[in-house]
Specification:
This protein has 147 residues and is mostly beta strands. It has one domain: Herpesvirus/Caudovirus protease domain (Serine Protease, Human Cytomegalovirus Protease, Chain A). It is built from 2 helices and 7 strands. The chain has helices at residues 22-30, 72-82; strands spanning 2-6, 38-41, 47-57, 60-67, 88-100, 105-119, 129-131. A 7-stranded mixed sheet has the order 5-6-2-3-4-1-7. Strand 2 and strand 3 (47-57) form a beta hairpin. The relative contact order is 0.24.
Length: 147
């Protein structure tokens, strides 16, 4: 499946907050720092797949995910996505904070990506699943040779 995991990044320069900046997004893509990360459902511990690829889509961070339908949790998540019960994506990351004595404020430092989650309702308005492909199990027919 593919979708958006982060809206247009905050403009760099003076922005020192928790959200990803446009340069954070560019770095994540060029360094492939999300590729291979686990895909989870609702940020729960069980991995249902992995991140295959990321790219810049007009400033947004888009992603291609693989969900393992051979495991129970992956199969359930895929069914929820196909039935549109689950429509959003969420990016799990940690942010280092540094306190400045002179400015008397915290500044966000390094952002470290942990996982991507498939969620019912995401925290960011534009982080949706845009499409998916699935291999439906084929029904095997028994060949009748007694004619």
């Amino acid at each position: 499946m593919y979708g958006t995991i982060n809206p247009i990044g905050e403009k760099g320069g003076s922005y020192e907050g928790l959200y990803l900046t446009d340069s954070d997004i560019k770095s994540a893509i060029s360094e492939e720092s999300l590729v291979g990360l686990p895909v989870k459902a609702e940020h729960v511990d069980v991995s249902v797949g992995k991140v295959l690829s990321t790219w810049d889509n007009a400033g947004r961070l888009d992603v291609l995910l693989e969900v393992d339908e051979k495991i129970f949790e992956g199969d359930v998540v895929s069914r929820f996505v196909r039935s549109k019960v689950v429509k959003d994506l969420s990016l799990g990351y940690t942010v280092g904070l540094q306190f400045s004595e002179t400015a008397q404020k915290f500044t966000a430092t390094k952002k470290t990506f942990q996982e991507v989650s498939i969620v019912r309702v995401g925290a960011r308005d534009t982080c949706h699943i845009h499409g998916f492909s699935t291999e439906e199990p084929t029904k095997k027919r028994k060949l009748d040779t007694k004619r």
